[in-house]
């Protein structure tokens, strides 16, 4: 069986959750005698030495990969439409599918590629499976966290443009500031005007209004493309609910957790801490939406005599301004260590050296891999009481929960671990088994087989 995995980016430069999940699945399919391929986007010039639409072929861990340069991003570069409709990416997807002849396409993320690749694959009669690894299909900034800090439930023309403006890097803020001024005055009028102007010759003189119109069209375009997907996998119930409430999925969506690679975890030496200090850890992207600043504030809020340490693992170069803010918050506290990123095969060792993993995210986090890895290592998790996090972390059973953005509440939960006799041991014993990548591929083989039979019967 030939399986074409589709992702927003891939190894070796990118190795976060989606990329890791894709690699795990591809490896396991290859180990079973199947032929996996990867089709992915890659950030383009000037971030990398690759032009929009340019093709790169290589192998990673024995798996053939084709990457295509993403369009330039931001409001200056037609962000609105190329975010969801990109005929260049569709053409590249069509070319690669014709070249390798897959039996099934499994998309893990469409960001950077656009939803246009869906009809491109469907033109060739290919079954398409989509795993909703984030909320891109309903949210142009992915995380459903609004510009005003509120959690969002789906597209809203009074907010989406503001959210995009808020995420625009400062060096590109001229257009962004113009958009914001218009929206602050008359958001609905501006959006309606954009629709009218986009159909006239005047639109060539109003880039800002064209962008607003494009953003307004995004939800309908993506819904239409997603109707051509044969099966949708939601890794959490909240993901399923958010997709279906926004008109995506209907009767073809199921909830099924990720399967993780456990060999690196189970083979690592166990270094359980039976005495103080309490070793706290953060493993993840050092970006604002992951909330590491909340964790550092909470840790600094512990009593001076608290016998605990905090080790922060994550790329220290990617989001430098935020990392600088984290270092400022940590100050001269010698108990806090910024250990940087680690190789994937070291995850078991890293987890064996902490007692509790903290996941202080500011967004729904439909099903973070780091939690499953921690549980596989027997490490309890303290997480935000929000979204998919609460579906895995059960308060006072296998971890603790604290309220969104509340550093004081997080500090209290950490203090409980220090002061309540037997609490840490109780949480460790409450951790159940996690789904392995082998079990996940068992499920996918059955699903792919069913879809291929339906295709053959047509």
Your description of this structure?
- This protein has two domains: 2-151 and 215-259 and 438-457, 3-Layer(aba) Sandwich (Rossmann fold), CATH 3.40.50; 263-429, 3-Layer(aba) Sandwich (Rossmann fold).
- Strands 3-4-2-1-5-6-7-8 form an eight-stranded mixed β-sheet, with helices on both faces.
- The chain has 458 residues and is of the alpha/beta class.
- Helix 12 (320-330) links the parallel strand 10 and strand 11.
- The protein is globular and about 65 Å long.
- It contains 18 helices and 14 strands.
- 45% of the residues are buried.
- Helix 5 (160-167) runs antiparallel to helix 6 and helix 11 (292-300) packs across helix 16.
- The protein has helices at 17-31, 79-82, 87-100, 117-122, 160-167, 173-185, 187-197, 207-226, 237-245, 263-266, 292-300, 320-330, 347-352, 369-376, 389-392, 407-419, 423-429, 437-457; strands spanning 2-7, 35-42, 55-60, 63-69, 104-107, 128-131, 231-234, 253-255, 278-283, 308-313, 336-340, 356-359, 381-384, 399-402.
- The longest helix has 21 residues, at 437-457.
- The model is unreliable at 170-175 (pLDDT under 50).
Q: Which CATH top level class of the largest domain fits?
A: Alpha Beta
Low-confidence stretches: 170-175
Mean pLDDT, nearest integer?
Answer: 89
Instruction: Kindly report the spatial arrangement of strands forming the biggest sheet.
Output: 3-4-2-1-5-6-7-8
End-to-end separation in angstroms reads 19 Å
What keywords describe this structure?
458 residues, alpha/beta, Rossmann fold, 2 domains, 8-stranded mixed β-sheet, 6-stranded parallel β-sheet
């Amino acid at each position: 069986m030939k399986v074409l995995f589709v992702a927003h980016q891939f190894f070796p430069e990118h190795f976060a959750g989606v990329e890791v999940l894709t690699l795990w699945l591809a490896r396991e399919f290859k180990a079973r005698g199947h032929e996996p391929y990867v089709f992915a986007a890659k950030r383009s010039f000037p971030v990398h030495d690759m032009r929009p639409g340019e093709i790169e072929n290589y192998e990673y861990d024995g798996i053939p990969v084709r990457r295509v340069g993403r369009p330039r991003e931001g409001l200056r570069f037609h962000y609105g439409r190329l975010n969801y409709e990109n005929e260049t990416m569709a053409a590249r997807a069509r070319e690669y599918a014709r070249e390798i002849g897959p039996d099934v396409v499994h998309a893990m993320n469409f960001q950077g590629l656009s939803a246009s690749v869906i009809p491109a694959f469907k033109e060739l009669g290919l079954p398409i499976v989509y795993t909703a690894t984030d909320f891109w299909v309903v949210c142009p900034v992915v995380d459903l966290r609004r510009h005003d800090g509120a959690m969002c439930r789906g597209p809203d023309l009074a907010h989406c443009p503001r959210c995009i403006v808020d995420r625009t890097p400062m060096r590109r803020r001229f257009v962004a500031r113009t958009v914001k001024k218009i929206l602050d005055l008359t958001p609905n009028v501006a959006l309606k005007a954009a629709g009218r102007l986009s159909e006239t010759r005047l639109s060539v003189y109003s880039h800002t209004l064209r962008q607003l119109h494009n953003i307004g069209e995004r939800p309908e375009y993506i819904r239409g493309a997603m109707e051509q997907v044969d099966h949708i996998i939601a890794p959490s119930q909240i993901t399923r609910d958010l997709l279906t409430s926004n008109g995506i999925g209907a009767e073809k969506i199921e909830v099924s957790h990720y399967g993780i690679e456990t060999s690196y975890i189970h083979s690592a030496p166990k270094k359980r801490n039976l005495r103080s200090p309490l070793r706290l850890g953060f493993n993840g992207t050092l970006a604002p939406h992951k909330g590491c600043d909340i964790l550092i504030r909470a840790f600094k809020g512990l009593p001076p005599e608290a016998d605990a340490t905090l080790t922060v693992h994550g790329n220290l170069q990617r989001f430098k301004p935020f990392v600088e803010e984290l270092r400022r918050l940590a100050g001269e506290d010698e108990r806090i260590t910024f250990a940087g990123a680690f190789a994937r095969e070291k995850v078991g060792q890293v987890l064996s050296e902490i007692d509790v993993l903290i996941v202080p995210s500011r967004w729904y986090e439909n099903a973070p891999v780091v939690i499953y890895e921690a549980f596989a290592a027997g490490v309890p998790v303290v997480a935000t009481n929000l979204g998919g996090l609460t579906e895995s972390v059960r308060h006072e059973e296998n971890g603790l929960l604290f309220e969104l953005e509340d550093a004081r509440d997080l500090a209290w939960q950490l203090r409980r671990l220090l002061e309540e006799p037997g609490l840490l041991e109780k949480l460790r014993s409450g951790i159940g088994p996690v789904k392995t990548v082998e079990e996940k591929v068992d499920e996918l083989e059955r699903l792919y087989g069913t879809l291929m039979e339906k295709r053959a019967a047509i």
